[in-house]
Amino acid sequence: MFKVYLEKLTKLLLIMLLIAVYTQVHAQTSITLTSNASGTFDGYYYELWKDSGNTTMTVYTQGRFSCQWSNINNALFRTGKKYNQSWQSLGTVKITYSATYNPNGNSYLCIYGWSTNPLVEFYIVESWGTWRPPGATSLGQVTIDGGTYDIYRTTRVNQPSIVGTATFDQYWSVRTSKRTSGTVTVTDHFRAWANKGLNLGTIDQITLCVEGYQSSGSANITQNTFSTSSSSGGSTTVTRVECENMSLSGPYASRISSPFNGVALYANNDRAYYTQYFANSVHTFRLRGCSSNNNTAAVDLRIGGQKVGTFYFTGTTPTVQTLSNISHATGNQTVELILTSDNGTWDVYLDYLEIQ
Predict the structure, then answer these.
(1) pLDDT tens-digit profile of 61-100?
(2) Which active-site residues does the annotation give?
(3) HEC profile for 80-130?
(4) Which pLDDT score, from 0 to 100, does residue 279 have?
(5) Which of 54, 77, 114, 281 could cross-link with 204 by S-S, CB 3.0 to 4.6 Å?
(6) 282 - beta bridge partners?
(7) For residue 108, what pLDDT is reported?
(8) Confidence band of 13 (pLDDT split at 50, 70, 90)
(9) Are the beta carbons of 290 and 298 closer than 8 angstroms?
(10) pTM to 2 decimals?
(11) DSSP characters over 240-259
(12) Structural domains of the chain in order of their starting residue, each with its CATH number
């Protein structure tokens, strides 16, 4: 009798421990850094790097972050995406951002990243502090996303890089006028650089970044939305959003690596969501996913808080389900994939959402 009681007590304590750990992990809404660190949070790569001085970076969900710096020599704060492929194979990468930016001295608000083979550090500078970088001779101008940018190439000799101390080129696009919100079509800058003979290799990372140099200041990134589009059928644009890059909420929603890299929704009110800008009010939506068994799993599509349709998946083989010619609100809208009809006989696994 005592042995049976002890076994039940042990199982109960183990379940309570697992619930406590799960709750702590999924309740985490931010992380705060004060020294050099990098990692992944809510599907976004983050990094704080400095060589000296006082820094604080708080990383929030959906790639948002805030930062403060003082008495620094050089410091970078950034969140974004890690890649390991050529820029041509990425499709069209866009970043929609919004920031409160308060530099005191030399600083940049920019899209920032690295490529390898060749090793290149690149900047798309949207705003700056007291000095407009990079202090070189412009190779010409290009108009992208309604703004005019000067293109530059500079070289760093025996300086820190993602592969250690090295000599490498820097590619720059610098706006002729400052802004702290908008959409940056990153791929158009890569193409403009290539037209000037400034070729990138394998893209390691693309991030939204605040950099400070021998200065102080603060910034609050309130939006940092990545989207990737590819051409399909002539002039039609298809935007694909990987579900593992979406934010998650609900009692059990989690990211998975099998049967694909994606997310799992296990119970009612589990959801994956992100912010999408819609210029038009009618689109076709395609969702790839599957059920956890031979039963039919269902997941609602909500846009701006309104249910606009339901995707159905039968069986464990991943399929693409389509909702055609769906009417919805325009502008920046929250797109949600939400489980609302679970009866305890299935779970749903989601890979990606395409919008056409």
Answers:
(1) 989 999 999 999 999 999 999 998 999 888 899 999 999 9
(2) 121, 211
(3) EEEEEEEHHHHCEEEEEEEEEEEEEEEEEEEEEEEEECCCEEEEEEEEECC
(4) 82
(5) 114
(6) 327
(7) 97
(8) low
(9) no
(10) 0.64
(11) EEEGGGSEEESSS-EEE-SS
(12) 30-229 (2.60.120.180), 239-355 (2.60.120.260)
> What pLDDT is stored for residue 20 in this prediction?
47
Distance between CA atoms of 150 and 5, rounded to whole angstroms? 74
The 10s digit of each residue's pLDDT in 221-232 is 999 999 887 644
- CB contact set of 216 (below 8 Å; sequence gap of 6+): 69, 70, 71, 72, 104, 105
The span from the CA of 38 to the CA of 79, in Å, is 9
Give the residue-averaged pLDDT of 40-61: 95
State yes or no: pLDDT of 340 exceeds 80.
Answer: yes
Q: Which tokens belong to 291?
A: 């059920």
Please name every residue paired with 240 in a beta bridge, in sequence order, or none if there are none.
228, 354
142/148 Cα distance (integer angstroms): 6
58 strand-pairing partners? 32, 66
Decide: 267 and 252 in contact? Cβ < 8 Å: yes
Q: Average pLDDT over the chain, rounded to whole?
A: 90
Q: Residue 99, Cα to own-chain centre: how many angstroms? A: 15
Asked if residue 173 lies in contact with residue 150, where contact means CB atoms within 8 angstroms, the answer is yes
Inter-residue contact 167 to 156 (CB < 8 Å) = yes
